[in-house]
What we know:
single chain; alpha/beta; 2 domains; four-stranded parallel β-sheet; two-stranded antiparallel sheet; about 40% helix; globular; binds zinc ion
Amino acid sequence: MVTNRLRGLGMGWCQSLLNLLFPPFCASCRTALSQAHALCPECLTSLPAPPENHCLRCGGMTARPESGCARCLNDPEAADATYFAFSYEGLAAQLIRGLKFGDHSEQSRLLGRLCWERLGEVLRWESVDLVIPMPLHAWRLIGRRYNQSALLAGELARYLDRPLVTDLLFRPRRTRPQTRLHARERQLNVRGAFRVQGEGVRGRAVLLVDDVMTTGATLGAAVAVLKRAGASRVSALCLARVMDGK
Ligand SMILES: [Zn+2]
Ligand SMILES: [Zn+2]
């Protein structure tokens, strides 16, 4: 007990010294702040809200979000819920690109925190058993050095106090980048792209974590595979949604 208190004091002292030597700053505009991995109040308010007209189940754009879109209404393999923290534009897009392509893995601390501040309340209502990141194909992982969704999922698992599981959902087939493909081509491109190993998801409620959703074809394929493997519920969390994605 006493040791813990001393250790706490020591940690606090170390942190203060670190803050003195390397003062923390806003991750966007570099204004000095009192804590690291944070945004200043101005940058915080400039973060774009997520779009409202998306299906609450699969995340696809729809005029009637509550009742589920036509695509997932009778689809038992569609996600049970999809959450977004931001629209993929402005500062949110800039931070996510930094995490994804800029080799700024530390950005996951900030994005995880921002995501939790926006969605923590609703995520607490989801009775999540396992937190699973959208996997990268092995070759893509070598090129990028880390899976940005796994870093983000790790942050959320910590906030939710649930296990982060990275060895159940795999991406055995390499797919072409979805960006230049039409909706139908995207669906074909991700067919058979995912596989669940073992029985670990059977009867469990899964939170699948991804960074950006455009049309939802990739996310939908991963959700379907988890459901086919027996997951009792699959909710998806994407940091941001592309506004003009269908
Ligand atoms: Zn700022
Ligand atoms: Zn839907």
